[in-house]
Amino acid sequence: MLRSFNGVERAAVLMMLVDEEEAASILQKLDPEEVRQLGKAMYDVADVSEAEVEQVLDDFTWKARSRNGVSFDPGPKIEGMMNKALGPERAESVLARIMPASAAVNIELLEWFEPAEIANMIEEEHPQIAAVLLANLDPDIAAKVFEHLPEAMQPQILRRVAKLGPVPPEAIETLKVMLQSRAGAAKKPSAGLQMGGTREAAKILSGARKSTEARVMPKLAKIDREVAKAIEEAMFVFDNLLELDDKNLATMIRSIDGDVLARALKGVEEDVRERFLGCMSSRAADGIRDEMEARGQMKLAEVLEAQKVMVTIARSLIKDGTIVMPGGGEDDYV
Asked: CA distances (Å), 147 to each of 4, 130, 162, 214, in order?
């Protein structure tokens, strides 16, 4: 007559069927008490018969088939793989595009509210809650909500958006409860989520009025100079230089050392390169072309460093009014 095994004993039989490396990998995932119970059970079933092994396997197979699916959190493994393969920054970009919608905080109900109403919801909450909410909104909407928040709160909230990173479930739950009291039920999150960051904060501020940026950034710099600098850099990158009209682009180029310009343009597409060179005299443009050709292959780091120098100079010229970005004089929403 075949013996009847309990759950631990059935697990022990299965453990005896795998090799030592696989068994060790399983044991590493158990807590000490589970290891003790399973180890004892393996001694107890050491004399299991072939028929009893088949019984255990049949039982395991039946239970496995009765499940709708095997549930586990693939997030950490996928994130680890992406980080190793692509590096942290590129991995973050890819994960943001492939992460299932269910992993994000479901606050779609806010689409039914005006920016001023959303601002009213969170202005009495802790700044961290406001930051979590803004980080989950479309940047254009977040910018308008940001405009409606009290001026005294704005620098601190922008700083918190930039430094959010992993958000504890408790903070997300607080946000959910707050929204539930206004507009209905929400699901409870099971784990912390990665939110915000410098680029998210930069998008919010970029969508706000220029007067808001001019007011908030100096205050933020007093609170946290490093965060303010990072946001400022994220708001204006090399590609933004192409938004300048020919007159302003030519003015900027005259402030750039020829060596820097040659290195920076070495790593761009032909049409982009010609846009810059087209704003120079033919003689100067030919000189830059000759210098780029003479340089041969260059390291990407050298190109990016030169582009960063150009961006820094451009920001300085914009600040002192020497050049003007399109829409720079616009200060109101329509």
From this structure: 69, 13, 17, 13
